[in-house]
Amino acid sequence: MKPYLVIAGAGQTGREIAGRLIDKFDVLLIDIDAERLAVAHKEIGEVATFQGDATSPLVLHKAEMEKAHTAIGLTGEDQVNLEFCKTASQRFGVNNCYSVVTRRTRIAEFNELGIEVLSRAYAVASILQTRVDPGRRTTSEIGLGAGELFEVTVMAHSPVVGRSLSSFHGKAWLAGAIYREGKLVVPHGGTVIEVGDRVLLIGDPAVLPAVANFFRTGASEFPLQYGSYILVSDPEKLGDGFSLPEALHLARNTHAQGLKVLSAPYQNDDTLAEVCGLAEVPSSIKTAPDDWPRRVTRILNQEDAGCVVLPGPKQGLLDWLGLGHKALFEMLKHLDRPCLLSRGTFPYRRILLVVSKGEAFTRAAELAMEVTRHFRAEITALAVLPPEFVSGAGHHNELKQAIEHACSMGSYYSLKVESRMLEGHPVHAVIEEAANYDLVVLGYAPSGGPRWFSIDAAQHLILRLPCSAVVLTTPVQSFL
Fold first, then answer.
1. Of 87, 120, 153, which marks where a domain is finished?
2. Pick from 91, 104, 108, 13: nearest CA to 57
3. Which residue in 97, 398, 424, 430 has a CA-CA distance of 20 to 30 Å to 245?
């Protein structure tokens, strides 16, 4: 025997679903309009119908609703559908109740009764979007129906072209499949994105549309490619004061979903919450765990942090010996996302990209372009060439290629990158130049072991820069 399906409403949608399911269900159409029922007989054939008010318990009793396996409300009126499903479930014990909702504001009423609903406007708009914008497709038919799946076509000028999936650090989304030249590619960390790839993205519907835009055209969605929230903390009192104002500025002026604060014992949680409330930034305050910042990677993953904000440190005597701020550099060593060392020089109108060599610079350059475009700022790529007899001709050529790469990358982001090449001591020249900028972006590639009695150039810059700095590390390893 087929399961019994009762549909309230014999309009176009009701007749369409009845015709699709009649082979698998014993279908009964209920409608108060005899003409619509007659049309149903003409279109579907031998379908059972019943004329009457679908909200009436007497009508539903005569329709043998107590035998129904499933009930669907499709009358076109939200209140009628709600009453029909409510009566079917509560009075006649039907466990499977569905309805189409015209006004999305009423979805909560259906959900409270355990009725699964589909927004007519959302469903139609999603389908039309796939026609109008074929480069980005979504669905309301899989998962929670909230748009957890996007299919996006990667354009030639997208900055994700040539990047491996492991270079992205978003925790609220992942790439589930890639369709390339008519074939399915099952993605892994080493899979490299190519032009024309159709990438199936899966993740939090709050951030997924922004990530899809980034994959398609490179639209700035900072910090969502790394995580959903800005996280700020100063548990070890590294700098003067707390960097909350700059963190709030980031949370308000980026695509971050809000601000998370890891407070220290010397800070008052109520005061922090009040400041965040006055700034009208969605925020949560929690005490920094005992293993912060030692277990930084694990904690940031738990908090889904896309950018970490710390107070900018000051250089002391121990730093010249390589012994100062050990906790800070140990944490930076294992970060896999941007860290803003705050010195309060916001808003960001002029950004300086420190040119260096290797993967650390490549990642930092991409971040600098994205931040620059997001804040509509000006960007300068600065390379400092030590005397050739000190560093050698090979080092000079590598820096020149790196600055050319930065300018080329700017064209992908529709940015004009001013390039400057100076000669002299790299640390002194960058620090002097940074006085004219609001934000410095630099890559950091720490050594694997301790560096007693010496620190590298990047560490000197981190300690001595006069303005805020975003540091993006190429991690040595990750903590569990």
1. 120
2. 91
3. 430
